[in-house]
Recover the amino acids of this structure.
């Protein structure tokens, strides 16, 4: 039994929805406030899921499927790079961790948009704190693993035969 193109896009969307719901549970259920890099990773998970949802609704032919999957790969690749940056910040010795920066709302209210986005992508000292881990891996490591899986699924969608 083969899984249809549309079903796979729906599964990608549901996986991304599950990841973002888990993030919301950590934020509101466990009172773990997200750092700038966590928020950026959420945005990229949302982007991958949105591409998959639109593709599932559209149910395109081969060219459209490759376009949607390609956009999903790009968003997941960008998310992977943010997750890896986050892991790098967490691996720094305490004396090399950058200082904590302003809050997200402050950045977007008081800095030009490109500067605020640049600060968001750089992360700060808040991003270096490991507040949760499972099997020895911190949250950004698990998100990076999820992004690699999303890249794999989108590549499979892109090149498989219908």
């Amino acid at each position: 039994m083969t899984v249809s193109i549309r079903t796979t896009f729906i599964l990608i969307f549901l996986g991304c929805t599950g990841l973002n719901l888990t993030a919301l549970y950590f934020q509101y259920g466990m009172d773990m406030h997200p750092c700038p890099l966590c928020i950026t990773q959420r945005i990229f998970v949302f982007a991958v899921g949105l591409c998959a949802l639109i593709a599932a609704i559209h149910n395109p032919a081969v060219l459209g499927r490759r376009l949607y999957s390609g956009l999903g790969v790009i968003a997941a690749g960008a998310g992977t790079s943010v997750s890896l940056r986050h892991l790098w910040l967490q691996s720094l010795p305490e004396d090399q961790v950058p200082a904590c920066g302003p809050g997200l709302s402050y950045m977007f209210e008081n800095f030009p948009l490109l500067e605020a986005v640049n600060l968001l992508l750089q992360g700060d000292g808040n991003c270096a704190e490991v507040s949760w881990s499972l099997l020895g891996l911190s949250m950004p490591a698990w998100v990076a693993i999820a992004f690699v899986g999303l890249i794999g699924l989108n590549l499979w969608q892109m090149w498989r035969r219908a």
User: Anything to note?
Assistant: Strands lie at 133-134, 137-138.
